Automatic annotation (TrEMBL):
<comment type="function">
    <text>Synthesizes alpha-1,4-glucan chains using ADP-glucose.</text>
</comment>
<dbReference type="GO" id="GO:0005978">
    <property type="term" value="P:glycogen biosynthetic process"/>
</dbReference>
<keyword id="KW-0320">Glycogen biosynthesis</keyword>
<dbReference type="Pfam" id="PF00534">
    <property type="entry name" value="Glycos_transf_1"/>
</dbReference>
<dbReference type="GO" id="GO:0005829">
    <property type="term" value="C:cytosol"/>
</dbReference>
<dbReference type="Pfam" id="PF08323">
    <property type="entry name" value="Glyco_transf_5"/>
</dbReference>
<dbReference type="GO" id="GO:0004373">
    <property type="term" value="F:alpha-1,4-glucan glucosyltransferase (UDP-glucose donor) activity"/>
</dbReference>
<keyword id="KW-0808">Transferase</keyword>
<feature type="domain" description="Glycosyl transferase family 1">
    <location>
        <begin position="289"/>
        <end position="437"/>
    </location>
</feature>
<comment type="similarity">
    <text>Belongs to the glycosyltransferase 1 family. Bacterial/plant glycogen synthase subfamily.</text>
</comment>
<protein>
    <recommendedName>
        <fullName>Glycogen synthase</fullName>
        <ecNumber>2.4.1.21</ecNumber>
    </recommendedName>
</protein>
<dbReference type="InterPro" id="IPR013534">
    <property type="entry name" value="Starch_synth_cat_dom"/>
</dbReference>
<feature type="binding site">
    <location>
        <position position="17"/>
    </location>
    <ligand>
        <name>ADP-alpha-D-glucose</name>
    </ligand>
</feature>
<dbReference type="GO" id="GO:0009011">
    <property type="term" value="F:alpha-1,4-glucan glucosyltransferase (ADP-glucose donor) activity"/>
</dbReference>
<keyword id="KW-0328">Glycosyltransferase</keyword>
<dbReference type="InterPro" id="IPR011835">
    <property type="entry name" value="GS/SS"/>
</dbReference>
<feature type="domain" description="Starch synthase catalytic">
    <location>
        <begin position="5"/>
        <end position="232"/>
    </location>
</feature>
Length: 478
């Protein structure tokens, strides 16, 4: 049967996605299979997930599960070997996975994801897996339920973003079905409340986050966001493993979203994609003008406000700018105002559309990723893959994946983009000026572009580390 793992995640592409967690959880199982690790992925039975399941089979009935009848279903879809918690009283509702249609989190999120974590423990016991891999706060109680379960199964807990912690009032604790001793400083208790992320960090056998630099940053008060002390105490169990891309799906040679497909060996067709982006965003059709782009959440973390402040450098430098994103209403308004003030030079799409985003990756000359902090980031990896050298803030996974085009790196022939100091509009503006100057040195820019496209951004190297980590915790508790 091999080495079997149950992955527990609230999102997995292509079934349900709100961010990078879904991309990682959706792509990692196939990469782990190459390392002799067979992964089943447990998802909540959201309405969209249930609608996508082809003829699911019942694994277990859970007649009284957190306020209603539920079932654990088995299915294969989207390249994943799936388990799904079919609990209509918790997940069969409109809106997103976490947020109600009118805005604001679902009021029963604590119960919904406690039920999900409890079901994961039940499934792991039933299947007899060698280890469990739990992702982010929504699966933060999984290590707790496993710790108090009849059979000891080790658990790896992956942090995708410390900013989202799943903190709920202490009054929810009695409904969780955990023993009283679990609500303690050495457990779920978090400044008088219940902390789902904190529970994962405390009870897991090993912890990792999604880049080496972010693993260091979360040991500081600023990066640890209230949990740095706990993490410093567990520093020996903390690992930083870079995210990757599904390079079969993210492939400019086969991507059906592109106006023209291209490769590192023949990047010339990118010009047709650039023309398509200019047309879609109302930009002047000019193949020679440098086109910079941003794709992401319009939020403080992502530095969209810094970009709007620094983007005047692009306008002054004769460049164009395209943006895809949504989020903070004030930032959305500011982005629209910027585009209105620069007709034919700046274009904005509020929202997200996969095809439009792929077209931008394939047509922009450079991507800008100005995050104040970034656990790993996928935009810069996609940018490398699609030949759009990125301008990134020197933080987290951005610092780990992009080699700055400073004089020494250019001389050594290893630069893949531009790095700037995080959280500073003046540093971002200086980086954009540098990128514009590099772009106008055509041979240098083509070399940077080619080097980025040749970079291995796949899950292969990271899957080896995940497999070793999962097998290691299983051996310790075997």
């Amino acid at each position: 049967m091999g080495f079997e793992v149950l992955a527990v995640t609230s999102e997995a592409y292509p079934l349900i996605k709100t961010g990078g967690l879904a991309d990682a959880a959706g792509a990692l199982p196939a990469a782990l299979a190459q390392e002799g690790v067979a992964v089943r992925t447990l998802l909540p039975g959201y309405r969209t997930v249930m609608g996508a399941l082809p003829k699911p089979r019942v694994l277990l009935d859970l007649p009284r599960h957190f306020g209603g009848a539920a079932r654990l279903l088995q299915a294969h879809q989207g390249g994943l070997d799936l388990l799904v918690l079919d609990a209509p009283h918790l997940f069969d509702r409109p809106g997103g996975p976490y947020v109600a249609p009118g805005g604001g989190d679902w009021g029963d999120n604590a119960i919904r994801f406690a039920a999900f974590a409890s079901a994961a423990s039940i499934a792991a016991q039933h299947l007899g897996v060698a280890a469990v891999h739990a992702h982010d706060w929504q699966a933060g109680l999984v290590p707790a339920y496993l710790r108090f379960a009849p059979k000891r199964i080790p658990c790896l807990f992956t942090i995708h973003n410390m900013a989202f912690q799943g903190k709920f009032p202490a009054s929810v604790f009695p409904a969780l079905g955990l023993p009283p001793e679990a609500f303690a400083r050495e457990g779920l208790e978090y400044y008088g409340a219940v902390g789902f992320l904190k529970a994962g960090l405390w009870f897991a056998d090993a912890i990792n986050t999604v880049s080496p630099s972010y693993a260091e940053e979360i040991l500081t008060p600023e990066g640890g966001m209230g949990l740095d002390g706990l993490l410093r105490g567990r520093a020996g169990d903390l690992h930083g493993i870079l995210n990757g891309l599904d390079v079969v799906d993210w492939n400019p040679e086969t991507d059906r979203h592109l106006a023209a497909r291209f490769s590192a060996a023949d990047p010339a067709p990118r010009a047709a994609n650039k023309a398509a982006v200019q047309n879609a965003f109302g930009l002047a059709p000019d193949p020679a003008v440098p086109l910079f782009a941003f794709i992401g959440r319009l939020a403080w973390q992502k530095g969209a406000d810094l970009l709007l402040e620094a983007a005047r450098v692009l306008m002054d430098g004769g460049a164009q700018f395209a943006l895809i994103g949504s989020g903070d209403a004030a930032l959305e308004q500011a982005c629209n105002a910027f585009a209105a003030a620069h007709p034919g030079r700046a274009g904005v799409f509020i929202g997200f559309d996969e095809g439009r985003a792929r077209q931008v990756y394939g047509g922009a000359d450079a991507m800008v990723v100005p995050s104040r902090f970034e656990p790993c980031g996928l935009v810069q990896l996609s940018a490398l893959r699609y030949g759009a050298p990125p301008v990134v803030a020197r933080t987290g996974g951005l610092a780990d994946t992009i080699i700055d085009a400073n004089p020494m790196a250019l001389a050594a022939g290893c630069a893949t983009g531009v790095q700037v100091a995080p959280g500073r509009a003046d540093s971002l503006a200086a980086g954009l000026r540098r990128a514009l100057a590099l772009f106008r040195d055509a041979p240098t820019w083509r070399a940077i572009q080619a080097r980025g496209m040749a970079t291995d951004v796949s899950w292969g190297p990271s899957a080896k580390r995940y497999a070793a980590l999962l097998k290691g915790i299983a051996a310790r508790h075997g």
